[in-house]
Amino acid sequence: MTGSSKYQNIVNRFRLVLAALPAVAAVLILRYVLQEIFDIGEVATFGEIGSVITGVTLILGFMLGGVLTDYKESEKLPATVAVAMSGFRTTARSGLLVKDLDASMIDSRIANVANVIAGWFTGSHTEEQMWAALPDFPALIVDLEKAGIASHYVGRLMVLNGELNATLNRIAVVRNTSFVQSGYVLMTLLVLVLQGSLAIVSFPSSIMSWIAPSVLSLAYAYLWLLVRDLDNPFGHSENDGKGCGADVDISPILLAARALNS
User: Fold this and answer.
1) Which range has the worst mean pLDDT, 7-16, 95-104, 117-126?
2) Element (H, E) at 202
3) Which of 14, 54, 127, 247 has the most CB atoms less than 10 A away?
């Protein structure tokens, strides 16, 4: 791994923390303005906003548990795509070589489809381009059958093509849909209410009156961002193509596409 790649990984890991810092700054600025400029004292105790904290924690826990279920499944999908692409070429080449046919005729067609699939993940190709490229695999199966490869190779190719299409469809659903849209509305509203409450709540000591709101504001803003980020574990094309720390590892797909081009 190059130095720039290591640096980018470090930045990605702390991207959400950095993104949550404006919320902390907003709470502290509002707290300072209310107390020092408008002379509005701390009007609620920490115990009194406990119900708000409980409500925010519950909805965040519900949303986080939901998106983590899809995230754990999504971690397995890139390897499935990579295995299907690599297995397609291996099976097709084997079927041709058994018949003493030129196997190089299929390499460029398979590589082209693999490049479009990899490009869809990284953002260089659209979803429409990806779906438009996929029909070349079943067309290739038909051409191979016409070329005379054995039926069991054709059957295996059809299975691999089906697995590839099913997996890509699942990834597309994960990318294009959000987990419980109404839950996001409630979660956002409660987090905003909590952030506002932290600007007026009182604490026993003057030091904790600034430290505690900062820590709580950072924690809940981070969790809010984390839920939204985990909801799309295939956001590698976001942030100018840099993705974020919550994206699943798609290196198996990129490595498979590179191998298919060699």
Assistant:
1) 7-16
2) strand 201-202
3) 247
